[in-house]
Specification:
heterotrimer; A alpha/beta (177); B alpha+beta (147); C alpha+beta (655); B: 147 residues; alpha+beta; five-stranded mixed β-barrel; 3 helices; 35% helix; C: 655 residues; six-stranded antiparallel sheet; four-stranded antiparallel sheet
Chain lengths: 177, 147, 655
């Protein structure tokens, strides 16, 4: 009978690990509590010319992406080709939200790798990123013309996500109007 | 056969006792070395006893890092978006320690309410944030952004 | 380009692995000898296909094909050539491919070098290994394909993490995996034995050389990891009881129990179930470790990028492999306690202590590693288990092992007397006490526990060496059997390790301080003078390099040049410590942070670490002992099914 013990012990271990996986899954796929909620208020200076400002009100009326990034963020570099391709196709208005970054570093980064953003804003102290619930970079939000968040991508934007989640939503928003 | 049986019985008893002792010592050691994770909100809103070691995690508030002139003592503020805690540390900060980034400090609360850190750990790459910190931030962030 | 060929090669390997798993196994039940013969060709073909696949991925790195996403994420045009090779296994997908490559190499080796095994048994061993390979190939192809393209292609790569741009990364993973994965062979032997219902001990003898080699590799793999952390991380630490480290340590602990248990089962027939179970558990722990570090279930600074969906796959795989083998064990393992009985004082008893303690150690490490998960799952909070838990248990559990070791070596099988043993061990006992006391008197700062540790290490070393002397005296010839030499080497290594560990844990001195150019600091009789920093350029980094002159009794001992590097591509900062290694001590300096604008005042870490090299030296001895034991010609004799007890079994028994 003692020969069963190892198997039983293992079974218990598996139970624990399955629970562990569920917890880990929750951590990486935290559904955003902001989906279907109004986009948080913001009024931020433009990165290259800080005397100009953009607020959430000025963006009403068209769908747009908000892409949180920083020059310190390695994965942002990895998703950059995807953002660039998206920009090339002119599919949706892209707002670059540079946060917790020195302006010179951000400008240098954009100069070096290319600037895909229709407008780049500077959230220097990260207050806005906290309002958006951003805890890692990159994170990307899709906002509809009425100013409601309809989709959030946690982590790197892949072309798959763009094709399956973002473009269809943008298309339906534009045809719906 | 009886002496053999007796010997086996003794052997089994010795083994069980040994394993039992090991297990007891282990549980005790586990409990003494468990470090709970606490967020700045927990610190400020709950009465945490001074003198008990725990892990404090959050973001380093921008502009809060200040070094002494003549020693390695450094102070900074750790926040989760809602509440903050003053941290004091005497030593060399890790390479990836930066304002606005997530860190975990291990230490204890002093009677005057600041956190005396014996160890400061920063994320090991720019995008990694200890899940506990992320959870705490998300929780704090959620409460704030109800619009 | 041709990277898709790499993927196709893997697919072909998967098909081959299927065939390997299926046909020979069926053949052993239907008596189809052609099916059985497939095992050799399938094993070799599978290996070739994975080598091709791995070669293609390596080529993508060497020729800097940034259209491959994995290459773009882990390499860079400035990356030196040497690291382009090792970058292949620097992240999840590539390291898995390395895992699979090493698995197929082991399988091919078994196919080539066990022709003398009984046909049916051998076919089953290879088939089981084939199934293990199927699982891994599926995992790679379905969830972790390194050949994915980046569209549009990246103009420049992200660069290999600077922490990994180092000699350690080149050697540590391959050697570690050789061990980790190599235990699959012992696993397959045990499963084949269970399938065949072998109650005889021959399968144990056949599996011993394979197990010893895997264990030796794992020993050096872990030691390398520890050494690497020591010089790379800049804080002088060498073991942190981090989940990833624990994941590799647990198979080693159980593997150590296994090699000893195998010896008993082969020679005396006892511990049959122990040996079976340990063989199954060692590889199971390897798989568990792989799961833990790649699934996101545990937080660790070392862990690969975590992905719970991958975790599900590995867990399912783990469930099938481990669950299946344990079910087989429960159903088939012969009833407990057969083979020779043994007295209270006998070699078997001391080896039983060994088995038990190592198993308990592994269980303790597993508990400590999984405890945070358990507490989180129960919703009782987020905790981490501090290193003192592991350290305390490790210390206590080592005591019975250290005590038993020399006694076990001298013991006769089956029955011995404590009077005889204590007589023979009198001198080792006294000598080790003298050594321990001597050290304590000369360095009172060492403390009782570490002094006891040094005594224990000396006890193990002296006891082992005295045994050799005893054998020589008895035989009055200078020929020591290689097996005894191997055993002695490994045990001495254990003693050396123990001494290094004890000395360094309490006698190390460490100081963090602010130093301006021209400042001096004295530690352990050495004077460290800081001469300021200068700028230095490397192939892909710029660094502040400090200069330290170390003197002792006014004679210059060495100059140390620690660096603080800034890697352009990723913007990472890295500390490069400067070490003066020595047999009896290491001097270690690393830069913390600049404390003023012109970089002439720095926060600095200075360490004096006595005997720390003994830790890794001990591991080298242990590894050598393992390899030497595996080379024993005894294993290469024709493998007959029944082998009567020969004079060989008496040769290692003291009498």
């Amino acid at each position: 009978m003692s020969r069963i013990f190892p198997l039983l012990g293992f079974a218990l271990l598996v139970v624990l690990l399955v629970v562990g996986l569920k917890i880990a899954d929750r951590k990486t796929n935290l559904p955003s509590p902001l989906i279907d909620k109004p986009v948080p208020a913001f009024d931020l200076p433009v990165l290259a010319s800080p005397e100009q400002r953009v607020s959430k009100e000025s963006l009403l009326g068209k769908p747009y992406l908000v892409n949180f990034w920083g020059s310190w963020c390695v994965t942002c570099r990895a998703e950059h080709p995807v953002v660039t391709e998206l920009a090339k196709r002119n599919a949706v208005y892209i707002v670059g939200m540079n946060f917790r970054d020195e302006t010179e570093d951000a400008m240098a980064w954009l100069k070096r790798w290319g600037n895909p953003y229709d407008v780049s804003l500077s959230d220097f102290d990260g207050r806005v990123s906290i309002d958006f619930g951003v805890y890692a970079a990159p994170e990307t939000f899709l906002v509809d013309p009425s100013g409601t968040i309809v989709f959030k991508q946690l982590g790197q934007l892949t072309w798959e996500v763009v094709e399956n989640e973002i473009l269809p939503r943008v298309a339906s928003m534009e045809s719906g109007n | 056969m009886t002496p053999t049986r007796k010997r086996r019985l003794i052997a089994v008893l010795v083994i069980i006792t040994g394993v039992g002792i090991a297990a007891t010592v282990a549980m005790k050691a586990l409990n003494e070395n468990m470090l709970f994770f606490v967020s700045p909100t927990d610190v400020q809103e709950q009465a945490l006893p001074a003198g008990k070691r725990f892990r404090l995690g959050g973001l380093v508030t921008d502009g809060s890092v200040s070094r002494a002139d003549d020693s390695l003592a450094v102070t900074f503020i750790v926040t989760d978006g809602l509440q903050s805690v003053d941290v004091r540390y005497d030593g060399i900060l890790p390479d990836l320690f930066r304002e606005g980034q997530g860190i975990i400090a291990i230490g204890e609360l002093t009677p005057d309410g600041h956190f005396e850190a014996s160890e400061v750990l920063a994320k090991h790459d720019e995008n990694y944030m200890p899940p506990e910190v992320a959870d705490a931030l998300a929780k704090a962030g959620n409460v704030e952004t109800e619009q | 380009m041709t990277v898709e060929l790499g993927q196709i090669s893997l697919l072909a390997a998967l098909l081959t692995a299927f065939v390997l798993g299926l046909l020979p196994m069926i053949g052993t039940y239907t008596g189809n000898r052609r099916f059985i013969a497939v095992s050799t060709s399938a094993s070799l073909l599978q290996c070739l296909l994975v080598i091709i696949s791995f070669g293609i991925l390596t080529a993508a790195f060497v020729f800097q094909d940034f259209s491959v996403e994995y290459v773009a994420r882990n390499s860079n045009s400035l990356l030196p050539m040497g690291y382009r090779y090792s970058a292949v296994w620097s992240a999840h997908e590539g390291s898995l491919l390395l895992w699979e490559l090493i698995l197929t190499i082991w399988i091919a080796a078994v196919a080539l070098f066990s022709k003398r095994l009984p046909e049916v048994f051998r076919a089953r061993v290879l088939a089981v290994l084939g199934w293990i390979s199927v699982g891994f190939l599926l995992f790679i192809l379905l969830t972790s394909n390194p050949f994915g393209r980046l569209i549009p292609s990246a103009a420049e790569g992200l660069d290999l993490n600077p922490l990994l741009q180092d000699f350690g990364l080149i050697v540590h993973p391959p050697l570690l995996y050789m061990g980790y994965v190599g235990f699959s062979v012992a696993f397959a032997f045990a499963v084949a034995a269970l399938l065949g219902g072998e109650v005889s001990r021959d399968w144990v003898r056949w599996s011993r050389p394979w197990t010893l080699v895997a264990w030796a590799f794992l020993t050096i793999g872990i030691a390398l990891g520890s050494w690497w952390a020591y010089y790379e991380l800049g804080w002088g630490g060498y073991w942190f009881w981090d989940p990833v480290e624990n994941a590799s340590f647990m198979p080693w602990l159980v593997g150590t129990a296994l090699i000893h248990s195998q010896a008993v089962t082969e020679k005396r027939g006892a511990f049959g179930n122990w040996t079976l179970l340990l063989a199954l558990s060692t590889f199971s722990l390897s798989l568990l470790g792989t799961f833990l570090v790649r699934s996101g279930v545990l937080t660790s600074v070392h862990a690969f990028a975590s992905d719970p969906t991958r975790g599900i796959f590995i867990l399912a795989y783990l469930g099938v492999v481990v669950g299946g083998s344990l079910t087989l064990y429960a159903a088939r393992a012969p009833k407990m306690i057969q083979g020779g009985g043994f007295a209270g004082v006998s070699r078997e008893t001391f080896l039983l202590v060994n088995n038990l303690v190592f198993a308990v150690l592994a269980a303790m490490v597993l508990t400590g590693t999984l405890y945070p998960l358990l507490i989180d799952a129960l919703g009782a909070g987020k905790i981490s288990v501090g290193p003192p838990y592991f350290g305390l248990l490790f210390t206590w559990l080592l005591i019975p092992i250290v005590l038993a070791l020399p006694i076990g070596i001298y013991s006769r099988w089956q029955q011995d007397s404590s009077g005889r043993l204590s007589g023979m061990l009198r001198w080792p006992f006294l000598i080790s006490l003298m050594v321990g006391t001597g050290v304590w008197i000369m360095q009172p700062a060492i403390g009782f526990v570490s002094a006891a540790g040094v005594t224990g290490g000396a006890w193990v070393i002296v006891g082992s060496l005295f045994y050799v002397g005893h054998l020589l005296k008895k035989k009055s010839s200078l020929r020591i059997p290689a097996s005894v030499l191997a055993m002695t080497l490994a045990h001495v290594g254990m003693g050396v390790f123990l001494i290094g560990l004890s000395m360094t844990s309490t006698l190390s001195t460490e100081k963090h301080l602010r130093m301006d150019a021209g400042d001096k600091y004295e530690m352990a009789g050495y004077t460290f003078e800081f001469l300021g920093t200068s700028i230095v350029r490397g192939p892909n980094y710029t660094a502040d390099q400090g200069e330290f002159v170390v003197t002792r009794n006014d004679r210059e001992v060495t100059r140390l040049y620690p660096q603080k590097r800034e890697y352009a591509q990723r913007g990472n900062t890295m500390t490069e410590a400067a070490i003066d290694p020595g047999f009896t001590r290491d001097l270690y300096v690393s830069l913390g942070e600049p404390l003023d604008q012109n970089g002439q005042a720095w926060a600095v870490r200075i360490y004096h670490k006595p005997f720390i090299r003994w830790i890794w030296l001990g591991a080298i001895f242990i590894m050598s002992g393992g390899f030497l034991a595996a080379a024993n010609k005894r294993y290469r004799r024709k493998m007959t099914v029944k082998q009567p007890a020969t004079a060989k079994t008496r040769e290692v028994t003291a009498s």
